[in-house]
Structures are given as C-alpha cells and as structure tokens.
C-alpha cells in the first residue's frame, strides 16, 4: 500500500479543497435547504471515479445517490448521507458554518464530521486505490441518502423495495472515529430512536397573563406531563417501557470493560462537574450504551425573546427524543407513551409522531468486522476499540440487519468533533488516515 | 355638557386620525424601540393644549412626560404610559400591528387599548373641555412613562424623588373599559407582580442527544423544578407563599357578588371548555381577583424550529410571572422561591430578577371614585361595575397609595380588546364615550 499512501500524501491538499467544496454547500434536511444541489455534487464526484451512479428519486424527499463499482467475490456496501444538521445556534460558531476554515490542523464546518468527511474520504480512497493499485478486488455499492438527520423517513421503504441493490457481504456505516485518547474505534451497532413532539393547547389566542388565574396554561400542562415521564434521578417512568430493555450479557459486559472510558476527559470537554447519577467508569459507559433515553431536545412556549412580556401562551410544544436499546421499538414508544399520558389524565396532550428507527447490532466475528479490525491495526498501529453499540441512531437496521448483512462503523471524526453542535470539526491528519483505512479495508475484505 | 359632546362628535374623525398617528409609532419598551420618538409625539400633543409639559430624563430609561394644566381646589393626577407590548406572534395579526386599521367600527393596532387610546382620549377631552367650557375647574397633572410594559423599573425611585409633582386629591389610572356585557367598569386597585427568569445550565455547548444518557439536561432540571412550584390543580406550592395571601373580607365578597361575571361569554371568547378547577361564577371571580398566580410566560430550550434536531441543549430558560394579591410583595417572592428551590436541591437553578410591583387598593368612598361613578352614570346611562381589584398589575402603589392618594382606573377598552395579544383593538364608539367620560369627570371632580 506504499504507493496508495504516497498518492494520498501527494494529493492531500486537493482532497481537503474538495472536502471544503462539499461543506460549502448547505444541505439541511430539517429545513429542506440545498439537498438537490448536494446530491448532484456527490453524483458528479462519483461519476468521475467511474462509478455506475444514479440519483433515485424519492416521493416527498431528496433523491438517493446509488452507485456500484468493481467486481469480486465479495460486496461491500457503503452507507453515507449528504445532509447535515441545522447550524444553529449561529452565534456560537467561531467561523461561519458553511464557510469551511482550517485552524491549527483542524477543519471546521457544519457536516464535516457528520458525515461529509467520511462520504468524500471513501470516494478519494477509491480514487487512490484505482490509481495506484489498479482494479478494485471487490464490488462496492454506495447508498447515500439526504434525510439521515431527520430520521431517514423514506429509507426503510426504499430498502424494502430495492433489496437487490442492498445485498452485500458487509457494510461500512456512515461515520465515527477516534476516542478521547486518539484511539480508533469500530462500532458494531446503534440505538434506535423515536423522535416526537408533545403539544398542549390553551386559549385560542395569547392572553394577558393576569388571566392565568382561571384560564389553563398549556405550558404548565406540558411541565406536569413531562414530570411524569422521567424522575430527577434520570429514571424513565413511562409505564412498561423499561420492561423491554435487555441487560447486557456477560460477554457484552466484558466488551464494555475493554473499552477505555475517559470519564474525566469527557467531563472536562463537556464542562460539567459529574455525569448523571454521579456515575463513573464502566457504570457510566453501561448506562450510556445500554440504557434508553428520554430527552427534551426543545421546548417552546410564549415569549422567549429578551425582556418582559406578561403573556399567557396559547400553545406549548416540546420535542422529545427517545433513544432505543434492544428490544425497544419506535412504535412501542408511541403506544406506551399515549397510554401513559391518558392514564394520568393528559388526554389533552397531542403526541405528534416524528421519525422512528429500530436499534441494530452486528456480531464481532463477522468477516467484514475482522477485515476492519485488521485494516485499523495496519493504519493506526494499534488495536481499535470495539464498541458493541453506539449511543447514536441511524437507519442501520432496514439497510443491513434486516437482510442479515453485518455492519460496522468508523470514520474520520474524533471525540470532540461536535457533530450536531457549533464548531463541528475534524482533524486533517485523521482525514488522511481515514482514507488509508478505507484503502486497507478494500484490499483486505476483497482479497483475504 | 352638550357643547362638549357636540364638539367631540364634530371632531370625531380627526380624533381617530390622531390616534392612528400615535399607534403608527412603534414604542416597544421590551425591545427599546421608538420610545424617544413616542415621548416627543406625546409632549408635542400636550403642548398644543397649553400644558406646561416637559420630558424628564431617566437614567437608563426613556423620559417621563410630566405636565400640569389648570387651577382649582382639587388636583387630579392622570397616569398613562406611551410604551406598548411587543407585537409578536406577528403571523396572527390580521393587519399589521403598527398600521392601524378600522374594520366594522373597531380600530386594530398594537397599544390602542393598552393604553394609547386612553392617553390620547384624555388629552382630546381636555381640548374639548377648554374649547367648549372654558378654563379647567381643577388642576390636572400628567405622569406618562415609557416603561410600563417592562414593569416601570425607574418609576418608584422617580416618584419617591419627586413626591411634590405627584401630590393630588385623586388619580385616574391608565386604562380599562367595558366588560363582557358592555357595562362600564371602575377598578379600585390592582395586583402586584414579580417577573423573573429561571435558568439552568448543562454542558458548555449543545451536544448530540445520544449523550443524554450521562450528561445532565438543563431542560429536565427546569421541568422538575417547575413541577414543585405548582400542582395540576393550580395550587401554588412555593413554601410559605400562600400564608401571605389575605382572603377577601365579607364586604369585599359582597362587592364581588355585585360584579356580573360572564363566565360563558369568557369561555367562548377564549375558546376553552372550562376554567381552571372547573370554577364558575363568584368562585371563578374570587380566584381571578384574590388569588396570586405563578405563570409560565415563556420557555425556551434547544431546537424549536420545524423538523428534527436531536440535540441535548446546553441551557434552558423559563419566564415566570407571579401576580401578587395583598399582602404579597415582590421581594418576598424572590426570597421564598430561592429558599424553596434550594431546599429541594435545585441550587443549580439561577433566579434572574425581573420587575416587581406592589399590589394596591383604594377605598370605594374616596371623592375621586364617587365623581367617577357619577360621571360614568351620566355618560353610559347605567351604574358602572365596581371592581375592587384588577387582576393585572401596574405601578399604582408608588404613585398613589404610597402618598395616600386614592386612585381608580377605567378607559376606552372592552373585554375583547386583547391587550398584549394579537389584533389588539378598541371600538370607536367606546372611544368617543371615553372622551365624554373624562369631560364629565373633570367637571364633577372640579366643581362638586
């Protein structure tokens, strides 16, 4: 792989310029901004590689970029997404979110870690491979969607309809990267999610707050309802929910024990004095990976600007994000939550369904995982950290596990990349290593 | 008063055009918009009447418009404010908030009811009086501030410093008007207020919501803290607060019983099926006037736009409005609330003090109140409804009761005026009657 690596080095500057170009194009799924343009950028880049690539239209959503390249005994499916999170709060960005800037070896831009960096690094790895090593030793399939950040609403149906396009011997998932101590990670699964809104309604218009004596306040209704969902010790109280949570097996606990959990570094990074419940070490990690969540992602009611407005709001809305561990399922949350609220008299509170995704897990001894571990050892000069389950979510289940395809995730990010946060970033050195990792993975999965 | 009334009729159109001019000038105290310009408009209008008027600068706030006109045995103090509430939510206005429009005899504009209509009606009444009746039979004093809607932060100190400017035999307060059944009202007091923010802080930046397993969520902290402040039956739970609430006397209950409470009309108006606790009639009215409130006026955290953002917020903020009945005081609320939160482990929640105002009450047999009742009977051909205490708030205490000056409030608004809400309005006929009421009041209070 020496020539491959030399090629990456020689082309490093151009590769970063290409990445900046990808990051300059806003592609915000939540706001429907720039998605078609971004899909076209990706398609054109893939075409340059000789990929048999096409935009597959989705009814009600931006197109899926699907591509195939190469032939071989095995097929590797590559999943990425070309959309990004909204950039707000804008005032916390040091440089503009869609004006990529390098500062001290780090590239800052919305989406650079999640996951335009990985999307492009994989294409540049294929360019490097073809230029220096010749024909690919396996078949690559790409499925790149534009709705991951809004929960991939159309992907499960697409996958079910186009099962033949997705058949593969293994899958590399969208992103990932180095942990707090700069160790590469390989992740074998992820949590599911149920994102939803609770809405409460009061009077037909905002009223003078003096009327709060007798006119119900929808904001209070939401507070009281929310308070029944989780207690101050972070225990989820939704009736029956915890009964569906599977405890980690002994083998999984051993895998957990092998994961270095850098609690103090994380605390310093996040600027907090302690974790929830004061947890440390493997107990914190166990909660992080094996417990579901019920998170207030947003709450809006009434007057929220500076200064004083004495108003009784007409409506209140909260956005809730449940992260699901096996064997929880999205539909189950909706059902349990509705019954929980009704049972406590909150029949007036509307549950507005957002996106849902199943949790997913792959076995650590699958060939694609073994190839990934060997590739990581070659590139990073150390054994990667194997993470059984990622705390985040994604549409892994309908693309892979549903067809029995093992999948893993890694990428060019790092523990402080700030996916979804202001000043999202990757380190340039991680990026070059990430390209080399893909080269190694192609070689090993295709030939070993 | 026939010539007075004829003059009002003849000049009706010009009077409304003048009022539109006042309403066209935004003057939003909470946002610091247009206040100097509005003060100057008011000053100029008063100068045209021959008022000895001046703008009295306030350190850190817009000027107070102070004026004196006329001589006589008695002095009537007129209190108004030239600032208005913020106009949002903008998308609920039928016509633009600062583009006054008449539709079917009703004038719509931000501030027209609260309280530019009254401010100007009183000046136009003086114009009408002087033109048709000659010299004023009493001395009028105006104190018109520009910060009422943010809680009059500078007025108490100003009043204490300029006690001589405020000495009077009676005071007419800013606004008011007709009830649900078009009956004129005269109000003898108002509630106090303590407006504040609670703020909770989590990580030093917004994080991916997958970290909600172990990183504390400030929004949940606020929900749990709020839940200890008020229960689902609308009982305020702040330790010790209710001990300071004085029940209405037998005499006050009789006054309440004489107030027609149009519960069904209010319910229809507000678009709600029932009042809090299912109260009706005098019980609802008693709660409305004699119970304090603890109102969520605003709650903001995390992502509140359309769509999905899976974010763990770094900060959460709630705006709370406590309305105070005698003998509650603003400072008392701050003290009780802080202790209440600390006692329950919410020492991390910051209490940010907003504006506070004392409650105020005047006796129903004060000469200025008697003159007002007689004037109302003459203009409206019916006895006014006497309301012992208004559910709203204002700086009445430091301007009047603190000096022993009795005060009452009435005005050109009506029960559906929507002060603080979109589509704020007054009825033109009420406006003309309001001008005539002031003429009668001047005559009766000055000569009887």
Set out the fold topology.
Two copies of one chain form a homodimer.
Chain A: H1 2-10, H2 12-24, H3 35-48, E1 52-58, E2 61-69, E3 75-81, E4 101-103, E5 106-108, H4 112-133, E6 139-145, H5 155-161, H6 163-166, E7 170-173, E8 177-178, E9 185-187, E10 189-201, E11 207-208, H7 218-227, H8 250-258, H9 263-270, H10 281-290, E12 295-302, E13 311-312, E14 315-324, H11 330-343, E15 350-357, E16 360-361, H12 367-380, E17 385-387, E18 390-393, H13 396-399, E19 407-409, E20 413-414, E21 425-427, H14 428-447
Parallel strand pairs in A: 3-6, 3-7, 7-19, 8-20, 9-17, 10-18
Antiparallel strand pairs in A: 1-2, 2-6, 4-5, 5-21, 10-14, 10-15, 10-16, 11-13, 12-14
Helix pairs in contact in A: 1-4, 1-14, 2-4, 4-14, 12-14
Residue stretches of chain A low in confidence (pLDDT < 50, at least 5 long) are: none
Number of DSSP helical runs of chain A: 14
What class, by secondary structure content of chain A? Answer: alpha/beta
* Beta-strand share of residues of chain A: 15-25%
Helix proportion of chain A: 25-40%
Ends distance of chain A: 15 Å
Mean pLDDT of chain A: 95
């Amino acid at each position: 792989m020496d020539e491959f690596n030399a090629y990456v080095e020689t082309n490093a500057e151009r590769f970063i310029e290409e990445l900046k170009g990808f990051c300059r194009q806003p592609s915000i799924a939540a706001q429907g901004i720039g998605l078609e343009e971004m899909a076209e950028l990706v398609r054109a880049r893939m075409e340059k590689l000789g990929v048999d690539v096409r935009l597959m239209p989705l009814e009600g959503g931006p197109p899926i970029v699907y591509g195939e390249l190469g032939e071989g005994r095995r097929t590797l499916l590559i999943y990425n997404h070309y959309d990004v999170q909204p950039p707000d709060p804008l005032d916390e960005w040091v440089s503009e979110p869609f004006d990529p800037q390098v500062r001290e070896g780090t590239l800052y831009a919305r989406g650079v870690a999640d996951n335009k960096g990985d999307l492009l690094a994989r294409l540049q790895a294929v360019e490097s491979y073809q230029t220096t090593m010749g024909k690919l030793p396996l078949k690559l399939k790409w499925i790149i969607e534009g709705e991951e950040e809004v929960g991939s609403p159309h992907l499960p149906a697409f996958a079910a309809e186009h099962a033949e396009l997705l058949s593969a011997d293994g899958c590399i998932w969208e992103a990932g990267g180095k942990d707090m101590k700069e160790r590469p990670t390989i992740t074998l699964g992820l949590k599911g999610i149920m994102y939803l809104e609770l809405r409460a309604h009061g009077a037909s218009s905002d009223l003078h707050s003096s009327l709060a004596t007798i006119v119900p306040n929808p904001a209070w209704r939401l507070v009281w309802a929310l308070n029944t969902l989780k207690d101050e010790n972070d225990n989820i109280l939704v009736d029956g929910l915890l009964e569906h949570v599977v405890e980690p097996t002994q083998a999984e606990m051993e895998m957990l024990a092998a994961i270095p959990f850098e609690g103090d570094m994380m605390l310093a990074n996040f600027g907090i004095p302690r974790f929830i419940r004061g947890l440390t070490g493997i107990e914190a990690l166990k909660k992080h990976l094996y417990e579901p969540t019920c998170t207030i992602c947003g709450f809006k009611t009434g007057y929220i600007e500076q200064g004083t407005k004495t108003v009784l709001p007409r409506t209140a809305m909260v956005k809730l994000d449940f992260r699901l561990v096996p064997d929880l399922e999205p539909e189950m949350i909706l059902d349990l939550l509705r019954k929980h609220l009704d049972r406590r008299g909150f029949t007036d509170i509307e549950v507005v369904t957002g996106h849902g995704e199943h949790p997913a897990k792959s076995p650590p001894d699958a060939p694609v995982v073994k190839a990934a571990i060997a590739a990581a050892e070659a590139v990073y000069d150390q054994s990667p950290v194997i993470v059984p389950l990622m705390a985040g979510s994604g549409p892994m289940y309908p693309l892979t596990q549903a067809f029995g395809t093992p999948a893993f995730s890694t990428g060019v990010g790092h523990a402080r990349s700030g996916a979804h946060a202001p000043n999202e970033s990757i380190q340039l050195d991680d990026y070059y290593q990430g390209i080399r990792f893909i080269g190694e993975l192609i070689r090993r999965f295709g030939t070993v």
